[in-house]
Amino acid sequence: MPGNTDDRRHAPATERNRDPIVSVLQGILPESGLALEIASGTGEHAIHFARVFPGLTWQPSDPSADARQSISAWIAAEGLSNMREPLDLDAASEDWPIAKASAILCINMIHISPWEATEGLMRGAGQLLETGSPLYLYGPYRRADRPLEPSNEAFDRDLRSRDSRWGLRDVEKVAECASRQRLRLVNTVDMPANNLSLVFRKE
Ligand SMILES: C[S@@+](CC[C@H](N)C(=O)[O-])C[C@H]1O[C@@H](n2cnc3c(N)ncnc32)[C@H](O)[C@@H]1O
């Protein structure tokens, strides 16, 4: 259903992290095809990426009806021809409403959802992506070789107090989960504010 522009929601962090994310995406996204975003939230990232990468068709998604309403409202307001209406997609589901993608992105979801969402994300990405195609993750993580930064330690505590199934994930465990679906971690990029970009490729 077309969105009403008044339903646009705004997450200020997206304006801060979108261009550092674009810098990483420039090195990994294909020129054309379909880019599927999991957990699009307000839709602001997808809108920005659709402008910066006009050769790709952007497919946002989110299991939250409120989020999808905001995404539709942004689409209606921006009038971008390379953006599709959002899908109702729960990463943890066995049955995704889409069969193929040239690239998959998931920003700031895996620490704020149960581990089953990460397992489902990897399972879905393993099924949808062709050999060589990228899966891009962004967010705060734990790393085996260094202590958690104080800001991320506090964030982790806050997440766990809100839902005991949430919390910052170990990069190594995420990579292991991905490898079971033939997704290999090929690059880890330090990002502003103690975040990481993780780039996987389908083997
Ligand atoms: C912190 S917001 C991030 C939104 C956006 N990617 C951003 O960075 O602004 C987390 C999003 O994850 C979505 N989410 C939570 N569990 C999910 C799941 N199992 N599958 C897909 N999305 C999920 C929520 O609906 C929410 O929109």
Summarize the structure.
This protein is of the alpha/beta class.
Characterise this structure.
The chain is an alpha/beta fold and 203 residues long. It has a single domain, classed as Vaccinia Virus protein VP39 (Rossmann fold), CATH 3.40.50. 36% of the residues lie in helices and 21% in strands. It is built from 6 helices and 8 strands; from the N terminus they run αβαβαβαββαβαββ. It has helices spanning 12-25, 44-52, 65-78, 115-128, 150-162, 171-179, and strands at residues 33-38, 56-59, 103-107, 134-139, 141-142, 169-170, 183-191, 195-202. Strands 2-1-3-4-8-7 form a 6-stranded mixed β-sheet, with helices on both faces. Strands 5-6 form a two-stranded parallel sheet. The chain is globular. The N and C termini lie far apart (37 Å). The relative contact order is 0.16. S-adenosylmethionine is lined by residues 11, 14, 38-42, 45, 62-64, 67, 90-92, 107-109, 112-113, 117. S-adenosylmethionine binds next to loops.
Which structural class is indicated by helix and strand composition? alpha/beta
Poorly predicted regions: none
Query: Strand-and-helix sequence, N→C?
Result: HEHEHEHEEHEHEE
Biggest sheet statistics = 6 strands, mixed
Helical residues, percent: 25-40%
What is the correct CATH architecture?
A: 3-Layer(aba) Sandwich
Mean pLDDT: 96
- Strands side by side in the biggest sheet: 2-1-3-4-8-7
Radius of gyration: 16 Å
- Looking at the structure, the CATH topology is Rossmann fold
- Name the bound molecules: S-adenosylmethionine
Count the E strands.
8
